[in-house]
TrEMBL record:
Entry keyword Lyase: yes
GO molecular function, one term: 2-succinyl-6-hydroxy-2,4-cyclohexadiene-1-carboxylate synthase activity
Protein name in UniProt: 2-succinyl-6-hydroxy-2, 4-cyclohexadiene-1-carboxylate synthase
Keywords assigned: Lyase
Top EC class, one word: lyase
Species for this entry: Pandoraea terrigena
Gene behind this protein: menH_2
Assigned GO CC terms: membrane
């Protein structure tokens, strides 16, 4: 894995931002490029070695970055609350600007695949719907399309754990401003106004290949999320992993990796030659 770098972008809603990122297998210039979007408490470091392992297994190039508010990227200003449409802003404003800043333009679309987990999966869905001319397809792990009681209950429990245990210290290993990361995510998800947030209408317009994967024991969402994708994106491939929680890349890395490599290989045959 190469050293961390920083991209500086200008945004209408967040102002100037500095986003940390790392390239994986940068020498594979003609290979599919996987852009990894982390979960609601994730970052470049929080992914650990899984993106590298996936890229090595499939012969992919990779790009891992931390959204503003996370990792070593520009933190969320204390006292500022994410708006209900914060994921829409990430998908339609921040991510396109970031890709431009690191040299990934529409001319590379046929090689670009988004790989998003949880909130990152939701952002990937929104980007796929809004910018079909900028990617080859997307893989989403445990994405949220709407807010469920289970999600709110689990996030409320996480708040208690953060306030009463050493979770804050543990997360501090992955974020320069851990309170920025945690409360930005926790406050908006527990805001009553957020119960109306819904992506179902948006995902229906996705035209590029889509692989959606979720663990059957996901503590933050039910299979209703996968069923909604299957119902509204007819061409999507949906995989439900047994004995797997909210983080398939940690709970079931082998079947997850095999599913992703096979899926991208079907749509980008040169990936198989790279892996070989």
């Amino acid at each position: 894995m190469s050293d961390v770098q920083f991209a500086r972008i200008e945004t209408a809603s967040h102002g100037p931002l500095s986003l940390e990122y790392r390239w994986l297998n940068p020498e594979l210039a003609d290979a599919p490029l996987l852009v990894f979007l982390h979960e609601g408490l994730g970052s470049v470091a929080m992914w650990k070695d899984w993106p590298q392992q996936l890229c090595d297994a499939g012969g992919f190039r990779g790009l891992v970055y931390s959204r503003n508010g996370y990792g070593r990227s520009t933190p969320r200003p204390h006292g500022e609350k994410w708006p209900v449409d914060f994921m829409h802003r990430q998908a339609r404003e921040v991510l396109p600007a970031f890709l431009d800043a690191v040299g990934i333009g529409p001319e590379q679309a046929e090689r670009v695949w988004l790989v998003g987990h949880s909130d990152g999966g939701s952002i990937s869905l929104l980007f796929s719907a809004a910018f079909p001319d900028r990617l080859a397809g997307a893989v989403v792990l445990a994405p949220h399309l709407f807010v469920e009681d289970l999600s709110v209950q689990s996030i409320a429990k996480t708040k208690t754990v953060y306030e009463t245990t050493d979770l804050r210290t543990k997360l501090g290993r992955y974020h320069d401003d851990v309170d920025s990361a945690f409360w930005g995510w926790n406050d908006i998800w527990l805001d009553p106004a957020f119960r109306e947030w819904n992506l179902v209408g948006a995902v229906a317009s996705i035209s590029k290949p889509l692989l959606a994967i979720q663990g059957e024991d996901d503590e933050y969402g039910t299979m209703a999320q996968m069923d909604s994708i299957a119902a509204h994106v007819a061409h999507a491939t949906v995989v439900k992993l047994p004995a797997c929680g909210h983080s398939p890349h940690r709970d079931a890395p082998v079947p997850l990796g095999e599913a992703i490599v096979a899926f991208i290989g079907r749509h980008h045959p040169s990936a198989n030659r790279q892996a070989a």
